Amino acid sequence: MIAEDLFDLAPVIPVVVLDDAGTAVPMARALVDGGLPVIEVTLRTPAALAAIERIAAEVPDAVVGAGTVVGPEDAERSAAAGARFLVSPGCTPRLRAAMAAGGLPFLPGAATASEAMALLEDGITAMKFFPAEASGGAAFLKALGGPLPQVRFCPTGGISPRNAADYLALGNVGCVGGSWLTPANVVRAGDWDRIRKLASEAAALRAG
User: What's the mean pLDDT when you consider all of the chain?
Assistant: First the structure.
């Protein structure tokens, strides 16, 4: 699998923050059942790596990855836990080299034309656009498609059911990332039916 393949699996990648690794497997199963097989578990909590490990081991239909990868050690630990892809909020030469050396598909973060061009110089054409809404939103990405038509993005940050379709309608957007699919209170309550419903609604989003 290459990074561009992630764009073809579903229109939305759930961006998940988990405080309890014990909720990882039922949550992942609900998302997959709802039609969203690609799951980004952010490395923002102590439970994140254990959650990735459990999903990788127990939910074979899920394509689980690690988000908020900010250093080479994050990339290494995520791979060891079973992550199948990596996502970073931004990118430095050291981090880019570490992610490339690890062999996993990765979506490095870019928020400006210059950042996207720097990654493009290294042959990277699949990127995360973050923080999407704060960095100009769908209008910015539409403008960027003119000079950089070979780059495709996964916008994340401020994406919701209200604006997801605006992004997905753009030719240079492969998918979007969003945290609305796994609200913290819903996960804590173990309301997997609710998450399955949210995933099903998101899976039905199409460009145009």
Answer: 96
